[in-house]
Amino acid sequence: MNSFEVTGGKKLSGTIIPQGAKNEALQILSAVLLTPETVTIRNIPDILDVNLLIELLADMGVSVQRPDRHTAIFKADNVNIDYLHSPEFRNKSGRLRGSVMFAGPLLSRFKKAFIPKPGGDKIGRRRLDTHIIGFEKLGATFNYHPEDGYFHLDASNLRGTYMLLDEPSVTGTANIIMAAVLAKGTTTIYNAACEPYLQQLCKMLNRMGADISGIGSNLLTINGVDYLGGTEHGILPDMIEVGSFIGLAAMTQSNIRIQGAGIEHLGVIPDKFRQLGIQLHYEGDDIVIPEQELYEIQTFLDGSVLTIYDHPWPGFTPDLLSIVLVVATQARGSVLVHQKMFESRLFFVDKLIDMGAQIILCDPHRAAVIGLAREQRLRGITMSSPDIRAGVSLLIAALSAEGKSTIQNIEQIDRGYQYIDQRLNSLGAEIKRL
Ligand SMILES: CC(=O)N[C@H]1[C@@H](OP(=O)(O)OP(=O)(O)OC[C@H]2O[C@@H](n3ccc(=O)[nH]c3=O)[C@H](O)[C@@H]2O)O[C@H](CO)[C@@H](O)[C@@H]1O
Ligand SMILES: C=C(OP(=O)(O)O)C(=O)O
């Protein structure tokens, strides 16, 4: 288990370029299974989860060329589906969430799929109902085999239909779209997730020959086609990294330029950080966060305490709430952070409290943060990273704290943030990988 030793209290400055988006990459990589032709993907983040998904594709017989660390050329013309039934697949796919999205393309192209219990962050219950019920509506049958922990899916005859999703699941919507593109007839998905990464997936599929309309809305219409061909695709900047860097800059009183932030795809993210009192402005597609002595949390218009909560797109992503929470600890003012989607994502506040933050964990979903207005600095401590976003939040806390901190279990951070220690050190941070 690797650790970071962080010497806090240093102001950072300079330019940082966001990596390609992890959660887009996981969808796009799954889609290469839909065609026997060549698919070239650019701006791939060099992170654990994504590298593992690429390894799984190669293990299944997909040919993979890597001209460089951020580009890959795939050809899925000789896929060995039986590999999905092997203990190696179960073991590797259980280490990330993205592998669940192999099911949609495999069902549509090969008529069967196996889904082991997927991995990913342990942040509360993460059910697969939306995925499986969507597949069933398209005509697939499924059996859960308790002895091997697999869902076995069969779909000799997928047919388009109307479906109203129980919830706008991100990976569920991606899976159903990928199952429907090669089905017979028209599929209509209402209450679809519609975040930019799903829009990117739909656009890529249309370039491959699919017929999807309603992209960007929660009502998608998919006219099934017989065949999909090859394409090229560039992954967007990672909006969660962009949000993390905005928070990091404010918390460490740093002057940071986020170059090529993909501003048009960020939705309400910049405004949520502005509500915390953080100044930021745009120069072209760059976000510039100036050094700020103090930032003051706004209230609602009637003067009541601000609440920041997650909501499916175009609402605020749950993946940035941990960062909002840590940044609020040094603001002037108070905020209620309400994590509606996941039950176990706020428990890391214990570590921030140990560092001296004033936070009341009201229940598993809500934490009230009373900002210290920099009158008291956080203290460095030893802590362990429970999940990817809590991990980065603890890193931000440690970078702003007085003294040294040790963050254990940094594999969680490496799952989603590319060379984070080197990139932040080049801005003046002091992070040692132990
Ligand atoms: C690999 C990947 O892309 N992972 C992302 C994906 O996970 P993932 O696709 O697994 O998440 P889902 O969208 O399915 O749902 C996340 C959680 O929110 C709950 N839920 C969802 C919608 C809703 O209206 N109400 C509700 O309570 C679900 O029951 C579930 O517990 O989307 C999540 C929600 O943006 C992100 O946190 C994950 O980073
Ligand atoms: C929860 C996340 O990832 P995953 O769905 O891959 O566990 C995340 O990216 O914050």
TrEMBL record:
Q: Name one GO molecular function term.
A: UDP-N-acetylglucosamine 1-carboxyvinyltransferase activity
Keyword terms? Cell cycle, Cell division, Cell shape, Cell wall biogenesis/degradation, Cytoplasm, Peptidoglycan synthesis, Transferase
Q: What is this protein called?
A: UDP-N-acetylglucosamine 1-carboxyvinyltransferase
> Which BP terms from GO are recorded?
cell division; cell wall organization; peptidoglycan biosynthetic process; regulation of cell shape; UDP-N-acetylgalactosamine biosynthetic process
Q: In which pathway does it act?
A: Cell wall biogenesis; peptidoglycan biosynthesis
Enumerate the spans annotated as Enolpyruvate transferase domain.
6-422
Listed binding positions for UDP-N-acetyl-alpha-D-glucosamine are R97, D319, M341
Top-down, what is the taxonomic lineage of the species of origin? Bacteria, Pseudomonadati, Bacteroidota, Chitinophagia, Chitinophagales
